[in-house]
Design goal:
heterodimer; A: alpha/beta; B: alpha/beta; Rossmann fold; five-stranded parallel β-sheet; three-stranded antiparallel β-sheet; globular
């Protein structure tokens, strides 16, 4: 019988191919569940999950919360903006206080890289990383891969380009790990200031011309320009970025093939991608959102399976 | 470890025909009835019954569904081995239908309990009946009894009933194994 090889989901880096296959297989079953008239199963009735969001989030938080509710677990929510962190409490103290309420699983988003790994060493609960700084966002990468697989049938041998702010993107790093693990070819494309040095060491190629990148690929995963993480100017103006790296219908129509467009959200419409492209039939952005719930249900279910009373 | 034949393929065939006739007796033309096999093992029996009803008794258009109960089980995390889910294939609503749940062996009744909860996700059935091939008496943990049964068996706890189908093994056969 199958089980995950890891005790926590801290990053794709720690998973192997079998883990990803198992998560996808389980997600298939949950996708069927969330399309039933009654979209709920009682598996996790006796599990309590804390959603700790030390950084703002809309869709990831909603998606996790919905996944947890569909599995019938009890939930407590925490947002940094309304918390005692402002009063100077440390991360471990905050979390230990929450764990004293007998929580089994912690879903955490944190602005600091490695926050999940740190926590997993100090507390006795399953940790799911919902984004740690600019490091990893494993469930996003899993749902991206799941959506590509659903659309194209497989990932092996497919050509995927990640466009935009790769430097600040945890989605990009997790996606690179996940796609390489499943045998895809990956390129990154963006302004040289937003491509990390030595990214080739991860086995990806760099392309600075959006036209060439799109001609090469089967799937373009377009990232958001993260204005909030940019303490200095990485490109002269948003308008220039849009002209050089923005994806619009004109570019796509001239490719001579239909590529699949993805975006992890939230979209800056008219900046990295135009509204027409985002809402076109080439885009699987809303499928990503639906699959996000199924994939997160699978991850939570598989980790909860390891909890023994 | 000893193995005794409970039913051979000929006997199974006769029993399946009898069960099919009993279903017809109660459900006529199956216009408001659905057969639901409990995954994984009940699905072989459900498919076989549906094909006998269609081919030998000319009942047309029987709604046949397969229901996975993994996420509804009460022994999640209480077993040594993790549970593995199988597919659910129910492409019709069971609202106001007569549902016949089908499983191969009725033992503790816990799978059927999970099936009763799971089926509610597809609507509110008019009524639910239970059909099993083997009813192991005296081993129930829950107050659940079959409406249709192939054969009643009095087996002690350390004995196990093994069902082979020609679809998954070489031939039909039901065996009693002493663990």
């Amino acid at each position: 019988m199958k089980q995950l090889s890891v005790e926590h989901l801290l990053g794709i880096k720690y998973l192997n191919k079998n883990d990803i296959d198992l998560i996808f297989e389980t997600a298939n079953h949950f996708k069927e569940v969330i399309n039933r008239p009654i979209k709920k199963v009682p598996s996790l009735r006796d599990i309590t999950i804390a959603n700790l969001f030390f950084e703002n989030s809309t869709r990831t938080k909603l998606s996790f919360e919905l996944a947890e509710k569909r599995l019938s677990s009890d939930i407590i929510n925490f947002s940094a903006s309304q918390s005692s962190l402002k009063k100077g409490e440390t991360l471990i103290d905050t979390v230990n206080n929450i764990l004293a309420m007998k929580v089994d699983i912690v879903v955490m988003r944190h602005p600091n890289v490695g926050a999940g790994v740190f926590l997993s060493k100090h507390i006795d609960a399953k940790i799911i990383n919902a984004g740690d700084g600019t490091h990893e966002h494993p469930t996003q990468a899993l749902l991206d891969s799941y959506s590509i697989k659903e659309k194209l049938g497989s990932i092996k041998g497919k050509k995927i380009v990640i466009v935009g702010d790769v430097l600040h993107s945890r989605v990009a790093l997790s996606n690179i790990f996940a796609l390489k693990l499943q045998g895809a070819e990956v390129k990154v494309c963006g302004p040289t200031t937003l491509i990390p040095k030595h990214i080739e060491s991860l086995g990806v190629k760099v392309e600075t011309n959006i036209q060439k990148a799109l001609e090469w690929c089967d799937v373009a995963n377009v990232l958001r320009v993260q204005h909030e993480r940019m303490d200095v100017k990485y490109f002269p103006s948003t308008r220039e970025y849009t002209q050089l790296f923005g994806i619009n219908n004109e570019i796509l129509d001239n490719l001579g093939k239909k590529i699949t467009i993805m975006h992890p959200g939230p979209i800056n419409r008219g900046v990295e991608i135009t509204s027409e492209v985002a809402d076109s039939n080439q885009s699987i952005i809303l499928n990503q959102v639906e699959n996000g719930v199924a994939v997160r249900m699978a991850v939570i279910y598989l980790l909860a399976q390891q909890i023994k009373r | 470890m000893s193995k005794k034949v409970l039913l051979n393929s000929k006997e199974i065939e006769i029993i399946l025909h009898r069960l099919a006739c009993q279903l017809i007796e109660n459900h006529n033309d199956f216009s408001n009835t659905a057969l639901i096999g409990l995954q994984p093992r009940g699905s072989f029996l459900a498919k076989r019954l549906a094909s006998i009803l269609t081919n030998d008794y000319h009942v047309k258009n029987i709604p046949l569904g397969l229901l996975d109960i993994t996420f509804y089980r009460d022994d999640f995390r209480r077993r040594d081995e993790p549970l593995e889910a199988t597919d659910t294939q129910i492409d019709f609503l069971i609202e106001n239908k007569n549902v016949v749940l089908i499983d191969d062996v009725l033992f503790s009744g816990r799978s059927v309990r999970a099936g009763l909860t799971a089926i509610q996700s597809y609507g509110r059935p008019k009524n639910i009946e239970l059909l099993v091939l083997i009813d192991r008496r005296f081993s129930r943990h829950l107050p659940i009894q079959p409406n249709y049964k192939g054969r009643q068996v009095d087996a002690i706890d350390k004995e196990k009933v093994i069902v082979h189908w020609k679809e998954s093994h070489t031939k039909d056969g039901i065996y009693l194994e002493n663990k």
